[in-house]
Amino acid sequence: MQFDHKQTEALLAVMDSGSFEQAAAKLHLTPSAVSQRVRQLETALGTPLLVRSRPCRATLAGQQLVQYLRRARLLEQDFLAGFSGAASATLSVPLAVNADTLSTWLLPAISDFLISENVLLSLTVDDQDHTHALMQEGQALACVASEPQPMQGCLVHPLGILRYRMLASPQFHARWFAGGYSREAARLAPVMVFNRKDALQADFLLQRFGLRPGAYPEHHVPASEPYLQAILLGLGCGMVPHLQADPLIARGELIDLAPDQPTDVMLHWHHWKVQSPRLERLTRRLVEVAQQVLLQAH
């Protein structure tokens, strides 16, 4: 069958915005018109594509179709730009990355490329254990993830290790750990947690002291800069990636509570085997720089 462009654009608009109302505003239509186009597409394919919840979610068939449509649209845009001689036409690329990658090495690694190649980023930020799922759902065409196995039809490149250390300010250390970083002290001291998906602190405390979540007080600060600032201000101790941690430890602004127990997270770059030319070049640039910036396994 041949897809109806208006129907597929309606589906993508709902997936991008999460609702028929916002999709309608984007497409300058009524919500009922958007709903009708999606239903016509579902009827043509003989299967539901959306779970009409808040926000709307794609069914398995919907995820597969959205993946295909995003890839096809990117390939078409890049091909037409090159074919017409307008290689400098902007190209928007949806990527999924973890917050610590975004706040440390990603943008310095690819900013020159994005400017020279006129590529626009559409970033979705999630935990490194969950970004891969965003690619599976069709919300991203490539991702930085901890998952080492590629999806069917995809390739994966190892990027390197982001090493985390459990850090605290000198004032926090003096208040809570003057007698040493012990199980009893760790049970009472507040811990910084990025968000509900962040398991770094929980895994560390379980391994070191056998403390389970709920056995110690927690702050939840779901933004990278405020999270680090909260640790610097002495609100709690928490895991910080080495790219941020090392200079702060060297200057004495933070103390490594467990220098014998870093947490290493291996990051990988996932992308489809068939990519647009500019996404292929973005992949080469990102992998090359990441392998220089991140720690490498021996």
Explained architecture:
This protein has 298 residues and is of the alpha/beta class. Helix content is 47%, strand content 20%. The chain is elongated, with a radius of gyration of 22 Å. The mean pLDDT is 93.
Uncertain parts? none
Major β-sheet annotation: 7 strands, mixed
Strand content: 15-25%
Radius of gyration (CA) equals 22 Å
* Whole-number mean pLDDT: 93
Termini Cα gap: 50 Å
Report the count of strand segments.
Answer: 11
CATH topology grouping of the domain at 162-265: D-Maltodextrin-Binding Protein, domain 2
Helix percent reads: 40-55%
Number of helices: 13
The assigned CATH architecture of the domain at 162-265 is: 3-Layer(aba) Sandwich
**Pairing-aware structural class of the strands and helices?**
alpha/beta
CATH class of the domain at 162-265: Alpha Beta
State the order of secondary-structure elements, H for helix, E for strand: HHHEEHEHHEHEEHHEHEHEHEEH
- Name of the CATH superfamily of the domain at 162-265: Periplasmic binding protein-like II
The shape, in one word, is: elongated
Write the layout of secondary structure elements.
Blueprint: H1 5-17, H2 20-27, H3 31-45, E1 50-51, E2 57-58, H4 60-83, E3 91-97, H5 99-103, H6 106-117, E4 119-125, H7 131-136, E5 142-145, E6 154-168, H8 170-176, H9 183-188, E7 191-193, H10 200-209, E8 218-220, H11 224-232, E9 238-241, H12 242-250, E10 255-256, E11 263-272, H13 277-293
Parallel strand pairs: 3-4, 3-5, 7-8
Antiparallel strand pairs: 1-2, 5-11, 6-9, 6-10, 6-11
Helix pairs in contact: 1-2, 1-3, 2-3, 6-13
